[in-house]
Write a structure and sequence with these properties.
Layout (H helix, E strand, L loop, with lengths): L12 E6 L6 E6 L2 E5 L5 E7 L3 H8 L4 E5 L8 H6 L7 H7 L5 E3 L5 E3 L4 E13 L2 E13 L9 H6 L15
Antiparallel strand pairs: 1-2, 1-5, 3-4, 4-9, 5-8, 6-7, 8-9
């Protein structure tokens, strides 16, 4: 029997998307994201959970969406942004009610969380179904620093804080 690999400590992102109505905006948590090419263009693979408003917005919006790199200070926002649906709660209104009204405006008029490390604008080139997620292969259109010296939020930090459960063995044996 194979031993379980150690948990992967990955960056935590939040996808900022727009609904069919330009005033409808949403943020959700993305932890399955990775750069896949850097030259001559930068490309990312982003995993989108089926059934989410963010996935629908991302796949519908031909102009692309913004992916913000979360900072450690954003850890308390993960339960709202990652464990609740925009079908049930207006996440940006809830953030404002919680006193998180400080948003930074970046290129193309997108609003992101103040204090995030940086922001990437991504446009999907292809989408592939992989289990309960779609993987979107995306071209990075631009990157903007917001707070470069901020400490990035990682899944390991979320586990330490009890926001994510401890990593356990895979549900099916590795062969």
């Amino acid at each position: 029997m194979c031993a379980s690999p150690p948990p992967i400590d990955s960056l935590v992102y939040s996808l900022v998307s727009r609904g069919p109505n330009p005033n409808e905006r949403n943020m959700n948590i993305i932890t399955y994201c990775t750069p896949v090419a850097h030259s001559p263009e930068r490309w990312y693979a982003v995993s989108l959970f089926h059934g989410t408003v963010s996935r629908e917005n991302f796949l519908r919006d031909d102009s692309g969406c913004v992916l913000q790199i979360m900072a450690q200070e954003h850890a308390p926002l993960v339960p709202l942004l990652g464990k609740q649906s925009a079908r049930d709660v207006d996440k940006l209104a809830t953030l404002a009610e919680q006193g998180v009204s400080a948003l930074a405006r970046v290129r193309d008029g997108h609003e992101v969380l103040a204090g995030c490390v940086g922001v990437l604008k991504l446009k999907a080139a292809s989408v592939h179904t992989c289990g309960d997620h779609d993987v979107a292969l995306c071209q990075m259109l631009w990157y903007e620093d917001v707070q470069r010296d901020a400490e990035p939020l990682t899944t390991g930090r979320l586990r330490e804080a009890g926001i994510l459960p401890p990593a356990g063995p895979p549900k099916t044996p590795l062969t």
